[in-house]
Amino acid sequence: MLCDSCHERDAVVHLTTIENNAVHQLHLCERCAAERGVETTVATPKHPLGEFLHDVHQQVATSRGGSEGLRCSFCNTTMADFRATGRWGCARCYTNFEVGIRELLRRVQGSHRHAGRAYQPPMSEELERASVLGELKDRLRRAIESEQFELAADLRDRIRVME
Amino acid sequence: MTLDLSLLPDGGVGWLDASGRHSDIVLSTRIRLARNVEGYAFTGRARDGERLRVLAQVREAVGSVGSLRESVMYRLDELPPTSRALLHERHLVSKELAGLDEQHPLRTGAAVFLADGLGVMVNEEDHLRLQALRSGFALQEAFAAIDKLDRDLGARLPYSFHGEFGFLTACPTNVGTGLRGSVLIHLPGLVLTKEIGKVLASLQQMGLTYRGLYGEGSEVVGNFFQISNQTTLGRSEEELLDQLLRVVGHVVEREAEARRVLLRDAGYIIEDKLWRAYGTLRYARSLTFDEAMNYLSGVRLAVGLKLITSLSVYTLNKLLIFSQAAHLAFAEGRALTESETNLARARYVRKALEGEAGSVG
Q1: Among the four residues A19, A29, A117, B294, which has the most C-beta atoms within 10 Å?
Q2: 3-state SS record for A117-130
């Protein structure tokens, strides 16, 4: 990736800032970063979500893969997507990235444990069947799009059985 | 499709009627709950087809929920920009849902259901944003209404819920209860006595936060602040609202005290300042939005201090909403340039104040 400032050298400093809850990213080479007074350890943003996103950056820079390669099985969201938008892609992301999310919630919310009202979704057989079927179809579409044909064939069989 | 606001019994602005508690200081109370429907990617990640299916599913559920049976649905994705801006100016939809936010273009399937003091935004950042809006300081009443709606809808739609994390939302800052309570409050006394900095700093220590008139990312104009809970997880709905209730109650007292001090220690200076604000609004030929807001803030304070007695808080509340750009364009029946908007605004404000001028002064 080239530096956003000089467009010549490779970007080595990745700045994530949060303004009005919108995530902005700036990729700079060492020299441009230094010119802007940014230390290569990166200034710490004040917003808690920004702080977390910044930490994720640092972790990724030093880790050997880790959760970086992880992809949500339902919506295909990756950690990189979350870093770019500050938003998860679907409810399943909370299970797929559970460990990281627990840590994130501790920082952003001061807790990771829901203390509000409990909830039991309506569970009529019809509703469940419809939702499972809808989900399988969405996954099938995504599998085809990402050319995962083996998975697509498996999903198609499961849909056929249900229909 | 054009916007037919006559379908809404009170134009969706019943909350302006100044009937609630402390309505000279607190304009309105809003509680929103963020919910997602199980089985679909969240709105930002979903395809057009998925968002339309979410809308269809919500629409079916809404049909059998008592408090929404009489509701009106507007498809934002079928409305022209002025109509969308109008709904936003009435605080009935968010900027994001109205597609007025540069970062979030208008989405297919963006819709809102509106009933008396209740609203359900569909395909906002989360599939569902339920909201209850009340006049004055009315957290308990707003919560009772929204909780009932939430339970009724949740019995017909499967929400995404996690045993440990609670209600799941696209942004981690909303997860858990999904609840954000906000109180729109007018604090000119604390601003004039320069106490406001301390008050705002203490809010943050108490786990609360503040924004401008239009919520997230909006600037503070006219001394209007929206105070709301910062976190949504780790505490129950009641605990979150109790905290907000206590702290805002305290802020209301501080504001009332600051107003007493101003009147006692700087009576004629304040009186002069506020009458000048009134005079400007009454006679100006062109007003920018910020100007109008600042003078309206002064006049509202004068009404609160009983320096001006013949103007109602309701009229001032209406001015706040109806003197905004999209409302003026709507009233004129055409798009207006910025300078035309400023002229139309001054005309509108003059007329409204003339109407109530009777014994002013």
Answers
A1: A29
A2: CCCCCCCCHHHHHH
